[in-house]
Amino acid sequence: MTSCDIAVIGLGLIGSAALRHMSLSFPNLRVCGIGPDEPDDRKTHAGVFSSHYDQGRITRILDPSQVWGALARASIQRYAALEAESGVKFHHRVGCLRATDIPEEIAEIDACAERERPPHRLLDAAGVKAAYPFLAFSDAFLAWDEKGAAGYINPRSLIAAQLKVATDRGTHVIPEIVSSIDCLGAGLTIRTREGSVLRARKALLAAGGYCNTLLDRKLELQTKGHTILLAEMPSEEIERLRAMPAIISAFAHDAVSSLYMLPPLPYPDGKTYIKLGLSGRPQELPAPEPYFDAIHSGRQLLDWFHSDGRRDIAACMRTALQRMIPGLKALSYHSAPCLISNSAHGKPYIDALENGRIYLATAGNGYAAKSSDEIGRIGAMLCAKNEWQSDLNREDFRAVYAQK
Length: 404
Hints:
Layout: E1 2-9, H1 13-25, E2 31-34, E3 57-59, H2 66-76, H3 79-86, E4 91-92, E5 96-100, H4 103-116, E6 120-124, H5 125-131, E7 142-146, E8 151-153, H6 155-168, E9 172-174, E10 178-184, E11 187-192, E12 197-205, E13 222-232, H7 235-240, E14 246-250, E15 258-261, E16 265-266, E17 272-278, E18 293-294, H8 298-306, H9 311-324, E19 332-342, E20 349-354, E21 358-362, H10 368-385
Parallel strand pairs: 1-2, 1-12, 2-9, 5-14, 12-21
Antiparallel strand pairs: 3-8, 4-8, 5-7, 6-7, 10-11, 11-12, 13-17, 13-18, 13-19, 14-15, 15-17, 16-17, 20-21
């Protein structure tokens, strides 16, 4: 039986960040991270999944939410040091263009730009056309062209960097799936599906949509399926779009209400893709159809990750992509499943579920990638010292339990 002071359960974006911060701040503690590696074949894998199996997530400071903006700023400020210590490149400063023709959103983002003051310029549709001639917006659009550290991160590489620093500092990692957490005596007994048993004084639970499978008292945690589209790019299009930033756009009158889009990125299969996803429901779909597919059981979760997502949503995104980049010559289109865990209040859960024993850092609400390092840091400090080490209001991050 292995023993440690603290076990971090779940080694995705938040868990790996927490593991690194514990290794930096508490070198005398025995810390162990538990979480499986990415499966070799998603469609035959029978274990757990994670949504970081991807090459690009947008990072930026401009965010209508003050909380998410603050979490992102703190995370971005540490990227350079993390890349230097780990030797792993994950941050790409290509900029982020946030565009909209919705008056309420224009006012909201303008207020955010005034409050946060990231390096940016405000462009109208003609200005966007001059700066990025391959993009097309109507005359009603305004866009905030954020520079500086804005762009995208490679989530696979970010996790690799976090774990590299943690393990170099002596942190132990067990690449297995936790099946149970039991409170026994003054500590915890943690068992994995593979048969390992670990004794720990405390645990930080950062297992995303799988958290409720390990808790007797369930959280208000909605796990929902999300479809992404990958458009394969030929070499001439890669060259034409070389200056393309990351993009977030909302539409008052279009096939979709809003979307996010990454510039052409190389993927492990040797091909280069533009990745996009919807951040609002497709307006073309019938009203009863949900944009996100609620997932209520482990069987549904397994079926979702074995699928290619929803074809109707992928078709809406393909239409939107072709409108935003007129004349785009894609070699092929592929859709894929992703997963979002939503909290009751729209912010991460960072809380003590049982003081001195079980702590929580989870629920990304679709925004955690750009803010994961700070979410992990706050969770690590809370678990290790039972202290809230952040200027953000602790009450905003309290866990909410499901009603029986």
